[in-house]
Amino acid sequence: MTEHLDGNALAGPLSEIFAVDVTSATGRCVSCGLAGPVASLRVYGPDPGLVARCPGCEEVVLRLVRGPGTAWLDLRGTVSLRVNLPE
Amino acid sequence: MSIISRGFRGKRRDDSGRVPPGQYLVDDFPVLSAGPTPRVPLDRWEFAIDTEAEQTHRWSWEEFMALPAETPTVDIHCVTKWSKLDTTWEGVSLDVLFEDVETAAEYALVHSYGGYTTNLPLEDLLDGKAWIVHRFDGEELAPQHGGPARLIVPHLYFWKSAKWVRGIRLLNEDWPGFWETAGYHNYGDPWREQRYEGD
Fold first, then answer.
1. Which of A16, A28, A53, B72 qualifies as a FRET site for B132, CA 20 to 30 Å off?
2. Record's SUPFAM superfamilies (chain B) (predicted)?
3. pLDDT value at position A1?
4. DSSP for A42-79?
5. ipTM above 0.85, yes or no
6. Cβ-Cβ contacts under 8 Å, B22 against chain A
7. Is residue A86 domain-resident?
8. Is the domain defined by B24-28+45-192 classed in CATH 3.40.605.10?
9. A49 domain-assigned
10. Domain range holding A53?
């Protein structure tokens, strides 16, 4: 049984917060250093919140909780996000 | 045939006074997960209480199973709005586990196999309010519901009832856990609808 979704499940919820599509950004895991597209993360949820884990070490890379009128985004498991932008 | 269908996929309400505001009743047992389900072999399972004075009280599975058991029947309330009445469990009261624990700490941080944590005041674990359970509905607790053993603290939203419980750290200062650091309420009283930070 697959317990998780892939990182593309973050596209809609994160588009409420960011102007760019974060799932195509490259993130680096704090725990193991693996870098890859946000879309490649393993996503658990959606309730009580979205929990995106590193496909290499399974540590939490990103969490997103959506309450009424508020979203909480936790990126402490992410070293950086590389976002490609038009020149 | 009646033209009023009896709540097909509808949300069942209850007027018994046992369902907190904003909740609806379910008959099944939804599974919510924040990560892969840990599989903990019983010969490697242990439960530990660490005090603020760095004293550790530890139980192997065998020692835990030798403790006096209780069979609480309780109502449970998930922050995602489902409630389930009269759930039946078997396990050990936290009062038994804390019998020989000397502490002046006010706060507890519960931690689990798989890395989950949740915090609550120590007094919410004592005086018949919480158990470490290993059976549900007459059967061994399934891994997706927290087996081999989970905490149940039925008077708080069910995210406080940590699955795959591994231990409790006693602290002089409150230390918010996994969901409490991501927008959920620090205490989580369902009767006061303390769902999110600021409620």
1. A53
2. Oxidoreductase molybdopterin-binding domain
3. 55
4. EEE-SSS-EEEE-TTT--EEEEEEEETTEEEEE-TTEE
5. yes
6. none
7. no
8. no
9. yes
10. 5-81
